[in-house]
Design brief:
about 270 residues, alpha/beta, 10-stranded mixed sheet, 6 helices, about 25% strand
């Protein structure tokens, strides 16, 4: 998962909803941990929240989630980068879904932190490139908190271990979408995911790229995926990301229904 898919961004928004103000909004970033969720369910939630954010009825959001196994393709992604056969995917109950974001194919599954920032860029006073850098920086900080040295890699969005060495390894992917000035989709950071699942694809459309995880790099290769560890990583990521964009963290209750049925973590 990489790159950015962007549509037309409206002209400057005004600070704090005041049409007379040129100051950027300084409201908190509402963070919601969703637990382990089906991809389609969370995809629907993202789009609903992005629409509501564009309408100005909610604040900026950050969704943190762990998905059931799924492959997603960017809107212009080449299907040939899915290496598994249809029969193999059906046998493992892994769906392939084409979505709106930029980039190629990526894998989501247990043991991986996925973060979806739903931000009104101009209202927050953010440009697209600094947002991408903030997401990469938060992934790097999360790796560091778990004892793994990582960095960004020029020309290859995401997060990498030994990016300039003889064998760079991808530990985090990035791909976002902007509609009506609001971002959605986001990042995927490998915490203790089963790396064998990445053999189903050419990650981010890059044949031969090596995928890795925090567990492997920290010497815990046999550590089974646990949602609790992903949740802890999500807390680190959220704090780092919010600090980088100059926002305070507030508890979120992101939901697409008034009763808040989607907001509680499983």
């Amino acid at each position: 998962m990489r790159t950015v898919e962007q549509r037309t961004i409206p002209g400057p928004f005004r600070g704090s909803g005041d049409p007379a103000s040129d100051e950027p909004e300084t409201g908190p970033l509402e963070v919601t941990w969703l637990g382990r969720r089906d991809y389609r369910e969370t995809w629907t939630l993202q789009r609903d929240l992005a629409s509501r954010r564009a309408d100005g009825t909610i604040l900026d959001q950050l969704l943190l989630v762990e998905h059931e196994p799924v492959l997603t393709l960017g809107r212009h992604a080449v299907e040939d980068h899915v290496r598994a056969t249809r029969a193999e995917l059906e046998a493992r109950a892994i769906e392939v879904i084409r979505v709106e974001r930029g980039g190629e194919v990526t894998y989501h599954g247990p043991g991986q932190l996925v973060a979806y920032p739903i931000l009104a860029l101009a209202r927050r006073g953010l440009m697209l490139r600094p947002l991408v850098r903030a997401l990469e920086s938060a992934m790097v900080a999360t790796c560091e908190a778990f004892g793994v040295t990582a960095a960004r890699r020029d020309g290859h969005p995401g997060c990498w271990v030994d990016p300039d060495g003889p064998r760079p390894r991808k530990i985090g992917a990035l791909g976002i979408r902007v509609e009506r000035g609001v971002t959605y989709h986001g990042i995927a950071l490998n915490i203790d995911v089963d790396l064998a699942d990445f053999e189903l694809i050419d990650p981010c459309g890059m044949p031969g790229v090596a995928s890795t995880s925090i567990a492997v790099e920290a010497g815990r290769r046999d550590e089974p995926p646990t949602t609790a560890v992903v949740e802890r990583a999500g807390a680190v990521f959220a704090a780092s990301f919010a600090a980088t964009i100059g926002a305070e963290v507030a508890p979120g209750n992101a939901s697409r229904d008034p009763a808040g049925a989607l907001a509680g973590a499983r």
